[in-house]
Each structure stands twice: as structure tokens, then as C-alpha cells.
Design goal:
The structure holds two protein chains of two kinds. Chain A is of the alpha/beta class. Chain A is built from twelve helices and twelve strands. Chain A has an eight-stranded mixed beta sheet with strand order 2-1-3-4-6-5-11-7, with helices on both faces. In chain A, strands 8-9-10 form a three-stranded antiparallel beta sheet. In chain B, helix 1 runs parallel beside helix 6 and helix 17 packs across helix 20. The chains are: A alpha/beta, B alpha/beta.
């Protein structure tokens, strides 16, 4: 017999997705982030790509933890769950396991996802549930008004580190790759086109997709990423990595990344020593390369890599779970409770 | 062959004791299953160390299994044992105190060598110094007999040694007239891939039986007739298995998928193990990365329309605390099984205690009421976890199901319920978008609608921030907060309209009412019945619903001169009763990691009756 949820899914089926616009994904709640916050851009880009996904609105759920970023679900006109600090990934896992038919998105921050929720994050990555994780990384605690975060740089002076932070920061991309993530990307709050393209790729990816968004907190950590996001400095400080393309960067496209052994180094394309043919060509299916590229982060002599580090296929957890259930049913038939209660050693008292 | 006589017994208590690697739990379980099939009533108490294989021969490595069975009603695993099977000196030392005067000791003499004696702290062998003269001691070199029985099988000495528990089992089967076939069937099934182990174990089992039958060491064997149980089909069941099946039964009756998010912890893990088997029932089990992910994944599944469950023990509940508050706030159904153990902190992982009642009632930030039910016997876990599920689904609330190590691992015969005749649990997801508000409430129950993702037009957001009444929007207004606190409390209070009234067993009024909850039921019942047989005015009231309490509980309590509340804690229910009903209830408290003995409660009642 079909369960109530199966009946509901059958009834609400997958009607040819309505023609949505970005506006259809805006909820009736006032957006309450600080004026100028990078979160606005992420919300706008997300709402903009939603109509392209072909998924009915009622089949989407946004799950968050605690922090500025975690208000996100209130502003999306989908199902949403603003849970508790650090646990969005675990709540989302339960939802996805119970309901593989729902498109599940997690919105988290550097504190929520990588400090209090670090454990759930790495386990989600290794299990590879088909969930999309958006990390709003602003390298600061905003909601609690300005303490350092696990991605803050060393020496950072904040309310809780008046003499400078002595914590070495996580590099979320490397951490997720180390946890065997199958899709890891980085994008920028001030680069809408790049963000939209990255979000779409993440949504299409089967398995856990992790997107780190460099997001400006203009109140407590203003300008943390300006060298990577502002016109004057961006092109010399960021290398956009694209599948099958050589790593070229610089205002005049005159610099590139070459592998010297396993070590990436910046070379000039102007002085005649090296040409584009000598440069590292990105392959997003290559796990080893993904580690090398992610490791360029925080190296002062190297440009910051932005783009999709890795996109590979691996069995998806909830599909494996369903497969085991189907296999057991094929082999043993649908479970019969009355039969189970009366199984094994029993005896009759007259 | 020696002449043997057979004596008839009403009841007997046997304790198997040995090293934690000696297979005493298996021996006890086999004896239990065979005894159940014979139609005796029974109750068991496994008592094992937290260490998996503690160093051999040590006192802290002793593992015991006690079974009390008879032709009469059996409510406890027995205050004291009549027979102690002791595989080594340490097992004797640890368990001798629980043997009745004149009781039977069967020792494996090989376990009493100099090294064993030293490890057990004996200066001289108790088998030789006359210190056991109060008991009937039977010395058998079980290790040697086992080796002899297997000598032509060329098994490793380790495997030979591992078989010796079957020799002890064979002896006890002979002594209490039990058939060997159920165990032989079990061995054949369990080791069907290892024919040499099947051969060895069956041989040793039969050797134990034949040895007892043939030698002159045992002159008497015993007959324990079947008990007069209510007619029907029975099986033996442990509390943890009953809880697992009760959850599955509830999901079926509600026509929902069952989702378990759990992290392994003693003594609750067996529920996770059991539920993991039943994939063909559609049960989804998720071994999470920690306790917090266990409960939060279950909350996520409940958001998606599953019967969400998490199983744990006290330390795990401590970790789940914040998520419990979330479940209260978002008003989603959730069953939280706490198989209590000795605390605080890591405490006594394998020992029993019922010290988490106040944690269940109050252990959260803010005003966060959660309904609580508790099982009173191993088989009762089925019924009470079913009730926990029913309440959770009907009232959209997390519910605690309390059991403990003694109930979870203990077992008893169970009259198998007629599944078809069990009531359905009615669940209706909200599907109508017209006039939908996530926090509108049913007038009678104050329950909010369950609107699950996938339903067109009901897209909404929930979360841990305070909600505006009806709309569910985030709201910080003072009046609204107070109203929501009161509504959530009132919703839980109204469950009292939907649970059985309290009813004293015995008389509706009198001198002493013994009030208990959870696993103390059997010991209290035995103690109360003994007093009633003597003509004393003593009755019993066992509380299965601890929050909310039965509506008429106060009236029941007021009709007795004295109220006694035995608990395996420092007095938790007694505090609640005194606070809520202003009755001068007395506590009887034991915190030793062991269940009450009936005699302990019987004596306390005596004192009260005598005005001491």
C-alpha cells in the first residue's frame, strides 16, 4: 500500500513546471539584511536562476542554521527551515533521505558551517547526498557583532581578538575536497554572471555541491575581498579556472599559472620564455589537480583561484538507500507486520 | 546409571556467571528461549561489564545473566539466585552475595587455578577452605570435559575453550528438564557456514547433558511446569526489540515511512540494529555522525512527512537538548527514545537507572514542554513506544519514550498482539491551500497543520525563532510570545484528555499506595502482592504517562494514608508528585546500577505500616 507521502507525490506529480520568473521566488517577507550587504546579491542571483531549473517551487526546500546568511530561507518563496546553529546540513540530510524527490538547498556561513557545524559539513560531503550547499563566507561573525571566524586571517583584530587572531584559518574548498566532496566551487558576490553560472552547475550536479561565495560584510569586515572583487585589482589577483582552459589572468591576459612539478607558479606570457601552451590546463574531473588549485588559496604570491575546482560523479547516498530498500523488497517481499510479530520461536498457551 | 529423582518446583532463579568472553549472555539467552517455549513465565537480567573483553579472570570482567522462571506469575528477575553457575573464581566472588543460603553452586574447577584465585583476590581456594559450607557445591572440570569431547576435531585450543559455555548449558538443561532441540536448531542456523563450529557446539552441549545424566554428581533434577498465562500465541521479547517493532507498527498504522536518525550508544544501540534489518518494510535507518545529527536528521525527515525517531541514552539526550527545543518550537512530530543508564556523564553505560525523568521534563532552555511516556516491562516497550508515536503524530510534538538498560536488555514472554485489531493512527497532511496558515490551530487539540514539502501552494517557512500566532511569521512582540508559550503548554496539557485515567491495582483506598514508573513495576508488584497476601492494606499505582500526568492522579493519591515512591534515582517522580499534588509522598531510592529487589520494597512498606 502506498504511504501518505507516496500518495501525495503521485497526486502532485511533476506537472510541466510553470513558467516562473525570479519574482515568483520572492516571499512576502521584508529582507532585513544591512543595506549594502553581499547577501542581497546572492539572494538575487539565486532567485534569478531558479526558473531555469525546471523544478516546481513546491518541490524545493531551503534549509539554514544560524547567522546572517541563515535568514535566507525566509526570503525564498519555497519550503524553508531556519534550524539551529550548525545543524542545517544534518536537518537537510534527514529531509533528503525521507524525500529524495525534493530539491534541497543549504544556506550557511563560515561560522555556522565550519565552526559549530563543521562535523556535519564534512560528513555530508563524504556521504554525497544530492544537496546544494551555499557557503556565505565573509570571514567574520556578523550576527553576533564582529568576532573572528574560522576563516578569518591570522592577526585579524576583532572584538574577541584585540591583539590579533592567532587562529590559522580554514580554507573551505580544501576542507571539502579533503572530505571527499564531489563538487567544489568558489564564486564572488560582486560577479553576478559567474555566480549564476556556478549556481546552475551546482544545481545540475548529482551529489553534494559545495559553493563558497566570497561575501562582503560591509559592517564588520568591509572590503575583506575587495582585491578579488573590485575592477581595479580583480584581474591581477584572481585566476578564473575553467574546465579545459589554460589558467590565464591579469589585466592584459599576460600572466598564467604553470605547474613546476606539483607546485603552481606565476609566469609571464610577455617575456617570451613561456606561452599559453606551457600553462596548466584545468580539468575539473581531476581530483589531484583540484587539491593543487584549492591550495593556491591564501598563498600571497599566487592569484586567488575562483571557479569550479572539482565536479565528479560518485554514488549518491539517498539513491543507495532506496536501492537497498527496493532490493530487500524484491528479495523478501513487502514487509508484513503481523507476520513479523509471529515469526521466530513462538508457542501457544491454551 | 545412577538413580535420579525428580522434584517439582514452582519457581527458580539461575545465574550464569563467567568472564565477559565466556559467552554467558549467549548461554543465558539460549536457556531463556528454551524456557519460554516450555511455557514458563520468566524475567531476565543481563548484567555485563562495559568492557567488551576485559582481561580474563578479573573481577571487573565478570559477566552475568540471571533468569527467574516458574509455573506462577513472574514479575522480576529474582531477588536472589537459587543456582549459581560459576565459570571461574572471579565470577564466584562477584556473585556469591546474590545466592540464597543453601543454594547450588556449580563451578568450573579449571577456573580456580592459582592465577584465577590471585586475580579474584582469594588467599585460599574457596573450594577447599570450607567457606562455601553453607551452599551445595558441585565441582566439575568443565574445561577438561569440553576438551575431551572435542579431542578428535583438531580445533584450536581457543575454539575449544569458547565452546565450554555449551557444556554448562547442557548441564542446566538436564537439571531443569529442558529440551536441547531449540538450541541445536539455533546453532545449526547461526553457524551454517562453519560446520566444524556446529559440530563442536552441539557435541559439547550434549556432553554436558550426558555428563549430568550419567555421573553420580547430581542426584536430583527438577521439574518446573508451565505457567498459567492468558491463552494465545506467545514469544519471548527484549525491551529493545519490542521498542523497534512498536515503532514499525506505529509507522504502518499511520501509513507513514519510518525514519530513524541515531548514533550508537549503550544500551540503546540494539534498536538501531533491529530497525536496520527491516529494509523491506521501507524503514530508513541513518547512522548519523553524532547524537545531534541523529535528532536533527529525524526532525528534517519529520518536516518531509516521515515518522521521525531518534534513539539514545542519557548522555545522548544531553547532546540533543537544543534540537529538542527546536522540535518544540517548530511543532513537528518526533519520537525520542531514551534507554536510560547510570549517570551522570558517561556514568555506568551497561547498568540500569531511571535518573533522567527530570531531564526529560525540564532539561531544556526556555519553557519547552515535552510529553513523556514510560514502559514498565520489556514487552510493554511495544505498547508505550506505539503510544509515544501516536501522541507525537496527533499533537505535532516531540515525545519522550523512556525505557532503561534493564528493560532494553531484559526479556519476558509476550502475548503477541493481533496487529490487524490494533487501532490506526490517523494522519492527515494539509493539502488545501485556501486559508492555510502554518500556525493556525485545531480548536480541540491546539495542533498546527502538517504541511509537507511537495504540496503545491503551501510553501512556508518554519524555524527556531518565536512565531507569530497563526501566521508563523517571525515575531518578537511581548504579548505574542507569552501567548505562544501558553499555547504550547496548553497543547501538551490537553493530551491528558486522551490517555487512560490512573487506577490503583488492589484497592481504591487504604493504608499504603506504592507509586512507581518505568522498570520498577515487577519488583513493586511482587512486594505489594506479598503484603496483600498477608492481609495488609497495600495497593499499587504504576504511571505510564508522566507528562501530562493522568487527570485524576491527585484524587487517587489522596485516598491513601501513605504514598511510597520507589525509584532508581534520588527521588524524581516523588518531587513532581509532592510539588503538584502537595502529598507527603515518601521516596525509596536506590542508585546502584541494579533494579530493586522485591524484598527491599517489601521491607520499606513494612516500616511504613509499623509507623517507623
Amino acid at each position: 500500500m502506498a504511504t501518505l507521502v507516496e500518495e501525495l507525490i503521485a497526486k502532485t506529480g511533476s506537472p510541466a513546471a510553470e513558467k516562473y520568473t525570479a519574482k515568483d521566488f520572492q516571499s512576502d517577507q521584508d529582507v532585513r539584511w544591512c543595506p549594502g550587504c553581499g547577501d542581497y546579491s546572492i539572494l538575487a542571483q539565486t532567485q534569478r536562476i531558479m526558473p531555469d531549473l525546471g523544478i516546481p517551487r513546491h518541490r524545493m526546500a531551503f534549509i539554514s542554521g544560524i547567522g546572517c546568511s541563515s535568514r535566507f530561507p525566509y526570503y525564498m518563496n519555497t519550503y524553508g527551515f531556519h534550524s539551529i546553529h550548525g545543524r542545517a546540513t544534518a536537518v537537510a540530510s534527514g529531509l533528503k533521505l525521507a524525500r529524495p524527490d525534493i530539491s534541497v538547498w543549504v544556506v550557511t556561513g563560515d561560522g555556522d558551517g565550519f565552526s559549530i557545524g563543521g562535523n556535519h559539513m564534512i560528513h555530508l560531503m563524504r556521504r554525497n547526498l544530492d544537496i546544494n550547499v551555499l557557503l556565505f563566507n565573509n570571514q567574520i561573525y556578523g550576527l553576533t557583532k564582529g568576532q573572528y571566524s574560522p576563516t578569518s586571517e591570522m592577526g585579524k583584530v576583532t572584538k574577541s581578538t584585540p591583539f590579533g587572531s592567532i587562529d590559522y584559518p580554514f580554507n573551505p574548498a580544501s576542507l571539502c575536497l579533503g572530505a571527499s566532496a564531489t563538487f567544489v566551487a568558489r564564486t564572488l558576490d560582486r560577479d553576478p554572471k559567474h555566480m549564476q553560472a556556478t549556481l546552475k552547475r551546482a544545481a545540475d550536479h548529482k551529489g553534494t555541491s559545495f559553493i563558497e561565495v566570497y561575501q562582503n560584510c560591509n559592517v564588520f569586515n568591509d572590503g575583506a575581498f575587495f582585491q578579488f572583487t573590485e575592477k581595479e585589482t580583480k584581474e591581477d589577483n584572481v585566476v578564473f579556472i575553467e574546465h579545459g582552459k589554460p589558467l590565464v589572468f591579469g589585466k592584459e591576459h599576460d600572466k598564467g599559472i604553470r605547474l613546476n612539478g606539483f607546485t603552481p607558479e606565476v609566469v609571464s606570457l610577455k617575456d617570451g620564455k613561456f606561452s599559453v601552451n606551457d600553462l596548466l590546463v584545468h580539468d575539473e574531473k581531476d581530483t589531484t589537480l583540484s587539491f593543487i588549485l584549492a591550495d593556491m588559496t591564501y598563498k600571497p604570491h599566487l592569484p586567488r583561484p575562483v571557479g569550479i575546482f572539482l565536479a565528479i560523479e560518485r554514488p549518491v547516498y539517498e539513491e543507495e538507500m532506496v536501492r537497498q530498500i527496493q532490493f530487500a523488497r524484491q528479495k523478501r517481499g513487502e514487509g508484513d507486520m503481523a507476520k513479523l510479530l509471529n515469526s521466530g520461536e513462538t508457542w501457544v498457551v491454551q | 546409571m545412577a538413580e535420579k529423582t525428580t522434584k517439582s518446583l514452582q519457581e527458580v532463579t539461575i545465574r550464569f556467571a563467567g568472564d565477559s568472553g565466556d559467552g554467558m549472555q549467549l548461554t543465558g539467552t539460549q536457556f531463556t528461549n528454551t524456557t519460554a517455549i516450555l511455557g514458563n513465565d520468566l524475567s531476565t537480567l543481563p548484567d555485563f561489564p562495559a568492557e567488551i573483553r576485559a582481561p580474563a579472570g578479573t573481577l571487573f570482567g565478570v559477566s552475568g545473566f540471571q533468569i527467574h522462571f516458574g509455573s506462577t506469575e513472574i514479575n522480576t528477575p529474582g531477588d536472589a539466585c537459587d543456582v549459581l553457575v560459576s565459570m571461574n573464581a572471579a565470577a564466584l566472588k562477584v556473585n556469591l552475595g546474590s545466592l540464597v543460603d543453601g543454594g547450588v553452586i556449580i563451578v568450573n574447577t579449571d577456573g580456580f587455578n592459582d592465577r584465577n584465585l590471585k586475580l579474584a583476590g582469594y588467599q585460599n581456594s574457596p573450594l577447599k577452605d570450607g567457606s562455601l559450607s553453607r551452599y551445595q557445591v558441585f565441582e566439575v572440570d568443565i574445561s577438561k570435559m569440553t576438551a575431551l569431547a572435542l579431542k578428535d576435531l583438531s580445533l584450536s585450543s581457543k575454539l575449544v575453550d569458547r565452546s565450554k559455555n555449551f557444556f554448562a548449558l547442557g548441564m542446566m538443561y538436564w537439571m531443569y528438564n529442558r529440551p536441547m532441540e531449540p538450541t541445536i536448531d539455533w546453532i545449526n542456523k547461526k553457524f551454517h557456514n562453519k560446520p566444524e563450529i556446529v559440530e563442536a557446539n552441539i557435541r559439547v552441549l550434549k556432553a554436558g547433558w550426558n555428563y549430568s545424566e550419567t555421573t553420580e554428581i547430581f542426584a536430583v533434577r527438577y521439574q518446573v511446569s508451565p505457567a498459567k498465562l492468558a491463552p494465545g500465541r506467545y514469544r519471548n521479547i527484549t525491551g529493545n526489540q519490542a521498542a523497534a517493532w512498536g515503532l514499525m507498527a506505529a509507522a504502518k498504522k499511520a501509513n507513514l515511512d519510518l525514519f530513524l536518525g541515531s548514533y550508537p550508544i549503550t544500551p540503546a544501540s540494539d534498536i538501531l540494529h533491529e530497525l536496520s534489518i527491516y529494509k523491506h518494510f521501507g524503514v530508513k535507518t541513518f547512522q548519523a555522525e553524532d547524537e545531534i545529527a541523529g535528532i536533527t536528521s529525524a526532525i528534517g525527515a519529520a518536516f518531509g512527512g516521515a515518522l521521525g525517531v531518534t534513539t539514545t541514552s542519557g548522555p545522548g539526550v544531553a547532546l540533543k537538548t537544543e534540537a529538542l527545543g527546536l522540535a518544540v518550537m517548530v511543532e513537528l512530530p518526533l519520537v525520542v527514545c531514551n534507554i536510560q543508564r547510570g549517570g551522570p556523564s558517561t556514568g555506568l553505560p551497561t547498568k540500569t537507572e531511571q535518573a533522567d525523568l527530570l531531564q526529560s521534563l525540564y532539561g531544556r532552555n526556555g519553557e519547552a514542554p515535552i510529553p513523556i511516556v514510560a514502559a514498565s516491562t520489556p514487552a510493554d516497550c511495544f505498547q508505550m513506544v506505539f503510544e509515544a508515536s501516536r501522541i507525537a503524530l496527533k499533537y505535532m510534538t516531540p515525545v519522550f519514550f523512556l525505557s532503561d538498560g534493564y528493560l532494553g536488555n531484559g526479556s519476558e514472554p509476550w502475548l503477541i498482539p493481533d496487529f490487524k485489531a490494533m487501532p490506526d493512527i490517523s494522519v492527515k497532511f494539509r493539502t488545501n491551500a485556501e486559508g492555510f496558515f502554518p500556525y493556525s490551530r485545531d480548536e480541540a487539540t491546539l495542533t498546527r497543520p502538517w504541511a509537507i514539502p511537495g504540496t503545491p501552494g503551501l510553501e512556508h517557512r518554519i524555524g527556531g525563532l518565536e512565531k507569530q500566532h497563526i501566521t508563523g511569521n517571525v515575531n518578537y512582540e511581548p504579548q505574542n510570545h507569552e501567548m505562544m508559550i501558553k499555547l504550547r503548554a496548553e497543547k501538551v496539557e490537553r493530551i491528558a484528555n486522551d490517555i487512560p485515567l490512573a487506577e490503583a491495582e488492589g484497592d481504591a483506598q487504604g493504608d499504603v499506595l506504592v507509586v512507581g514508573w518505568g522498570s520498577t513495576y515487577g519488583a513493586i508488584r511482587t512486594a505489594v502482592l506479598r503484603h496483600r497476601e498477608k492481609g495488609n492494606s497495600v495497593s499499587q499505582l504504576h504511571i505510564h504517562y508522566l507528562n501530562p500526568l493522568p487527570k485524576n492522579l491527585g484524587e487517587v493519591l489522596y485516598k491513601f494514608k501513605h504514598v511510597l515512591v520507589p525509584e532508581l534515582n534520588l527521588g524524581q517522580l516523588v518531587k513532581v508528585l509532592r510539588a503538584k499534588y502537595l502529598v507527603p509522598a515518601l521516596g525509596l531510592n536506590k542508585i546502584q546500577g541494579l533494579p530493586f529487589k522485591a524484598i527491599e520494597i517489601e521491607k520499606k512498606i513494612d516500616e511504613i505500616l509499623k509507623g517507623k
